[in-house]
Design goal:
Shape: globular
Largest sheet: 5 strands, parallel
Number of helices: 12
Helix content: 10-25%
Number of strands: 15
Low-confidence stretches: 414-458
Strand content: 15-25%
Radius of gyration: 23 Å
């Protein structure tokens, strides 16, 4: 049978998170039919997993223009643009109403299991670009279904694949066996059961980004509370402490992001956390009392801890795209044209160049990875980046190349955007002056009474 005219088919959007819902709103604005497939029972399922965490972006940076237009007839009112919502606020006041405005265009409990071309696996060239996409998905009752699509926008994010504690990218030896005392999310210490798990305990926090900052600040607050006596954190860093370790501080154009880094520094300076630097976890063992001992690649063994919080980044799930032809950077797992623009070894959060459909495209015409998934393993993504991405991508799908190429993106400077690679070698950064500003990062004193850091900005 001849293939259906692809332009009559919907555009499938994988994931009903902030970027996926924005993509659907832009498709509606351009007269195209979106079908959003969301694995969770409600919109923004991943955001609901960190609903207790306050964002460092204000409402001004967290809503999409096309989404606002779609919401306007419903009586929706945009929250005060200079306030900072929690993840829960973002869901309740914006994302859930947006999903409601999209109505039946969003299908819940639909886990995408595979995407291919109709009648073509990845090795077949003949008439490939003229065939529609076929998207297979599974419902919560186990039913398997498929839908044909003219294009696919993968906005499924990276939340489902947190990186492990192991310093080599693999789970540390014993990490799986110790799973009952390890979490890969920022704990909600407002939940009494979760609070009891960490109160009065010694907890290792592995990671160096905004999530680690949040965990350290939360544990420090618990240590100062009446029910938190004895709470202490051990901050495990794979690299050394420098002026950029705590982000941009007061120089950050996102003030709440800068304050978050300063709060983490205060946790260390005030004695609520100890910093262990240059430590790459090799194994996690249990002592005779059942507590966990972290062992480094160099044989160093840390003092026992009761709990471990692993916040070493997230990874994209590429499994359901295996029958499509992707062009991904071998290091970041981001589109090859985008990877050099977002590489944390070369760029700070404020030096990401404008990008749109051309940087997000693949050899498989009509397929786009957007949102956090487009950044692969790079940690520097902001919501406003995703909104601009889908504006460009949906314009390209509709055939409006002029609008698709007219990409404008201005990101706040500085912030948390370190990673592996060059940042692991402080002497390299000091020798070449760093990649984002002068002066080069200087080592900072750690301990009670240490002066505030003024160096670094990325």
């Amino acid at each position: 049978m001849p293939a259906p005219a692809t332009t009559e088919l919907p555009v499938v959007v994988v994931g009903a998170g902030p970027t996926g819902l924005a993509a659907a709103a832009h498709l509606v604005e351009r007269g195209l039919t979106p079908l959003v497939l969301e694995r969770g029972p409600a919109a923004a399922d991943a955001v609901r997993g960190w609903c207790h965490v306050r964002l460092f972006s204000t409402w001004a940076e967290l809503t999409d223009p096309a989404a606002e237009k779609l919401l306007a007839p419903t009586g929706w009112t945009k929250p005060a643009t200079d306030t900072y919502p929690s993840g829960g606020d973002w869901v309740e006041l914006y994302l859930q109403p947006l999903a409601g405005a999209l109505g039946d265009a969003v299908r819940y409990g639909a886990t995408v299991t595979g995407v291919s071309r109709l009648g073509r696996d990845r090795i077949v060239d003949t008439d490939r670009d003229t065939q529609p996409f076929t998207v297979h998905y599974t419902l919560t009752d186990g039913t398997e279904e498929r839908v044909l699509a003219q294009a696919v926008i993968d906005a499924s994010g990276t939340w489902s694949l947190p990186s492990p504690a192991g310093g080599n990218g693999l789970p540390a030896l014993g990490e799986r066996a110790a799973a009952d005392h390890i979490t890969y999310r920022v704990p909600d210490l407002g939940d009494p059961a979760v609070r009891a798990r960490y109160a009065g305990k010694r907890t290792a926090v592995i990671g160096s980004g905004a999530s680690a900052f949040t965990a350290l600040a939360s544990l420090a607050a618990l240590a100062k509370a009446d029910d938190g006596t004895g709470t202490h954190a051990v901050w495990v860093l794979r690299r050394g402490i420098s002026g950029s370790t705590f982000g941009g501080g007061s120089a950050d154009q996102l003030p709440a992001r800068g304050a978050l880094g300063l709060a983490a520094k205060a946790a260390v300076d005030n004695g609520h956390a100890d910093a262990v630097t240059g430590f790459r976890t090799h194994a996690i063992e249990r002592d005779a009392d059942g507590r966990l001992i972290l062992t480094g690649d160099d044989g160093q063994r840390l003092e026992p801890v009761d709990e471990v919080i692993v916040l070493t980044g997230l990874r994209p799930d590429l499994g359901f795209l295996s029958e499509l032809r992707l062009a991904l950077d071998e290091r970041l797992q981001a589109p090859v044209a985008l990877a050099p623009l977002i590489d944390p070894n070369q760029h700070s959060c404020g030096t990401v160049y404008p990008h749109g459909h051309r940087e997000l495209s693949h050899p498989e015409a009509g397929l786009y990875l957007v949102g956090m998934k487009s950044y692969g393993r790079a940690p520097t993504f902001l919501a406003m980046t995703g909104y601009e991405q889908v504006r460009s991508v949906t314009a390209a799908i509709s055939g409006d190349t002029e609008a698709a190429d007219r990409v404008e993106l201005t990101l706040p400077e500085t912030g948390v955007c370190g990673g592996a690679g060059l940042f692991d070698a402080p002497e390299t950064a000091q020798a070449d002056g760093g990649s984002c500003c002068a002066p080069a990062p200087a080592l900072v004193q750690i301990g009670i009474g240490a002066p505030a850091s003024t160096g670094g900005c990325c």
